[in-house]
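Re-run requested by the PI after the first attempt was lost when the workstation crashed. Everything re-entered from the original request form. Ligand of interest: adenosine-5'-diphosphate.
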Amino acid sequence: MIKLLDKKTADKIAAGEVIDRPVSIIKELVENSLDAGASAITIEIKEGGKSYIRVTDNGSGIAEEDVETAFKRHATSKISDEKDLDSIETLGFRGEALASICAVSRVELITKKPGNRTGRRVVVEGSEILHNEATGCPDGTTITVKDLFFNTPARRKFLASDAAEARRVIDFASRIALSYPDVRFSVINSTKRVFTTSGKGNIHSNIANIYGTDISKDLIPVNLSEDGMTIRGFVSDPGNTLSGRSRQIFCVNGRIVSSKVIEKAIDKAYKERLFAGRFPIAFLFIAIPADKLDVNIHPTKKEIRFDDSVRVEDFIMKGISNALMGKESIPTIEIPTVKPVKPVQGTQLDIKNVIKEDTFEYEEKPRKVDINNVLTTLLKSPDEKTETPVVEEKSVEPATHPFEFDELTIIGAVFNTYIAAQDEDNFYLIDQHAAHERIFYEKLLKQYDSADKAVQELMIPLNFNVSADVGTSEESWIDDIRNMGYDIELFGNNVYIVRAIPAFMEMIEAEEFLNDLFNQFSEHPDLTNRSVLEKIIMRSCKSAVKAGDYLDMAEIQGLFNQLKSCSNPYSCPHGRPVFIKMSNYEIEKMFKRV
Ligand code: ADP
Ligand code: MG
C-alpha cells in the first residue's frame, strides 16, 4: 500500500540530504550569517559538534514576524520568484537549511534586528516549535544546535569520532575565514579557542592566525595581474613541502573552490624543484571576470570550471613561477627559536625540518599576561567570553627580493663538493653536482631545439653495442639523438658508431649519457611525446657529473657563469636543490650574538 508520509517523517528524510554531519550544519549557519551581512561570526562546538553547536553573528537579525517561518521548508527571504534564480548573490536561497537542521536536533534561535529594543527566542525540537518569546539580547543572531540526530539514532552512528568531526569543522572554518578576510571569525572547540581572525582584511595575518606563524613566516608572496585576471596570495619555498595538498587552498572570486586546473598550474610552476609526492603550500586568491567561469556549474559544487582553462593555468603558473624566482625560494637553514617541531616525514629536501630535528632547545618566552584582561574575562558570563580581545599572531608581511647572481662573491669550495658564496646578507652553499646536472640538462634541451648544433668531431670514433630490440626500433630514436648533437650511424650487427658529440660535453659525459639513453630505450618510450623525452634526458643526466670532483677557482667561476644563464638555476632536474642559504642573522643567532 502506498501512503503519504506524515510531515515529521518527510522532514527527517529531507534533512538527511542537507545535513549529514556537524560540519554541514556549521556551513549552513555560517553562510546564513554571511548572507545577513555579519562582520563578526563565532563558531563553537562541543564533542565535535555532535552535542553542541553554536553560531553567533552580528548581522541583520530576523524580524519577530519571521522567526517561525524561517524554520519552514522552502522559506527564504533571499529570492521571491523564479526569475531571481538567475541573479543569486547570496550563499543560500533554497530555504531548506533551518528546516532540515531543526528536523534532526534541538534548536534555539535568539535574534534581534539592530534598532529593535527586544529580540526573540525560539526553541524548536524535531521541527516542533516549543517556545517563541521576547527576550533581551544583542543585535544579530545566535543559533544553538544540540543533540544532533537525537531522533534518528541510526544516523548518529555514522558520525566519525569527536576529534575527526571537529577536524572537519575546523578545516571548513579555516577556509571560510580565509575567504572572508573582512569578517572576524572566532572558532572555539570545547571551550578552547582554536583561532580568531582580525577581520581587517589582511590575508597574511589571517594565515598566521589560522595556520600559525610556523607556516606563515616563510611564505613567498604571489602577485600578478594580466588580461583582467588577478592572482594574489602566498606559496611556500620548494624546501617547505607536505606529503599532500591539505595546505593548498584556492579562492576564486571570493569562494573557496577545488580545481584540478589550479593544482596542475602549481605542479608545473614547481616542476623540477620538488621530489615526486611532495606538495608545496599555496594560498591563492584569484579574481577572474565572472563571464570567464562556467556559469552552468551548480552553486554548491566546489569544483570550479574555467572557460579557457589553458589560459588560466598558464596565468597561475606564471604568477607562481615569478614568485619562485626570488631569493626567498632558496631553501633556508634555520635555527629554531622555540622547541623543535616534529618533522613532517623527513626527506632530503626538507632542509628546515632536518635542521629542526636537531637538539637545539630554546626556552619558549613566557607570554605576557595582561591581568586586566584576565579579570574581565573571568568576571564576564560564559556567553560573553567570546568577546575577549584577539591575541593576534604577529605576522610580518613577507616580500620577494630578486636573486642576483652578480651580487654573489665566491669564497671557495667545501669538501670538494659545495661551492661557498655570499652576498650582502646571506651565506650560500651550492651543490656542484646538482648545478652541473642542471646546466647539462638545459644545454641539452636547448641544443635539441636549435637548428644549428654545436658539435665536436671525435678523433677516434666511439662504438656502441645496443640490444637487438633497440637496434630494430632505430627509427623511433635515432633522429632524437642526432638532434642532441650526436653524429651516430649504424655500423652493423647492433653496433653504432659515433663520430661527433655535443660540443659542451666531455668525452666521458657523452659516453655515459648515451649509455643511459640506450638503457631506457629498451622500454620503448614514446619520444614524440615531449614530456617523455624530457624525462628520459633528465634521467640520463644523472651519471653525467660526479660529486667530489676538485674544481679550481676558474672552473668554479665557469660553472657559476653557466648556472647564471639557466632558466631554472635553483634545482637540479630531479628536484634536489642547487642552492641552500643561511642568513647572516641565523648565523649570529647560532653564535648567540643576537
Ligand atoms: P536560505 O538561507 O536558503 O534562505 P535557511 O533555511 O538557511 O534558508 O534560512 C531561512 C531564512 O532565515 C533566511 O532566508 C533568512 O531570512 C533567515 N536567516 C537564517 N539565518 C539567519 C541569520 N543568521 N541572520 C539573519 N537571517 C537569517
Ligand atoms: Mg541558508
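Saved to the shared folder this time. Residues 338-388 have pLDDT under 50 and may be disordered.
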